[in-house]
Amino acid sequence: MLTNLEHLGLAVNDLEAATSLYTALLGQAPYKREHVASEAVDTVFFQVGSSKIELLAATSSESAISRYLEKKPEGIHHVAFEVDDIWAEMARLRTEGFVLLNEEPKRGADNKLVCFVHPKSAGGVLVELCQEIKQ
């Protein structure tokens, strides 16, 4: 079950410029910066109420963010929802006919297990499922 809007992921060309822009817009500094080698991205997170804004910048031309920005302008890349049990939610979505981009969850940014739902099966929106990794 989707329990919360976890974050909006924004694809950006220049992470430092975007960080400055969102720091000014939101009136606060980001709470976290992280390199995610498996996705070839650098991320910056801002807390906004109970949700977050994630800025994503490619660190390689092979990155999904790099390929995305070759076709589209900077802006909303994905919508992420928090789930209590990512495995159960993946099974439920498959049963409902959604196409998942991952066979199993993988480690993502901000201490999360993640899985993506293909935009073609979600009304043109890339959806990310996120479950916090328990320490």
Structural notes for this entry:
The protein has one domain (2-132): Roll (2,3-Dihydroxybiphenyl 1,2-Dioxygenase, domain 1), CATH 3.10.180. A hairpin with a 2-residue loop joins β3 (41-48) and β4. Helices cover 22% and strands 41% of the residues. The protein has helices at 15-26, 64-71, 86-95, and strands spanning 2-11, 32-36, 41-48, 51-58, 75-83, 106-108, 112-117, 127-132. With 135 residues, the chain is α+β, with helices and mostly antiparallel strands. An 8-stranded mixed β-sheet has the order 2-3-4-1-5-8-7-6.
In short:
GO terms for molecular function: metal ion binding; methylmalonyl-CoA epimerase activity. The protein is α+β, with helices and mostly antiparallel strands and 135 residues long.
Q: How would you name the CATH homologous superfamily?
A: 2,3-Dihydroxybiphenyl 1,2-Dioxygenase, domain 1
CATH fold-level assignment: 2,3-Dihydroxybiphenyl 1,2-Dioxygenase, domain 1
Q: In total, how many domains does the architecture comprise?
A: 1
- Average pLDDT, all residues: 95
Low-confidence stretches: none
Q: Rg from C-alpha positions? A: 15 Å
Q: Give the tally of β-strands.
A: 8
Series of H and E elements: EHEEEHEHEEE
Backbone shape: globular
**CATH architecture classification:** Roll
Helix share of residues? 10-25%
Number of helices: 3
The chain-level structural class is alpha+beta
With strands numbered from the N-terminus, the spatial order across the biggest sheet is 2-3-4-1-5-8-7-6
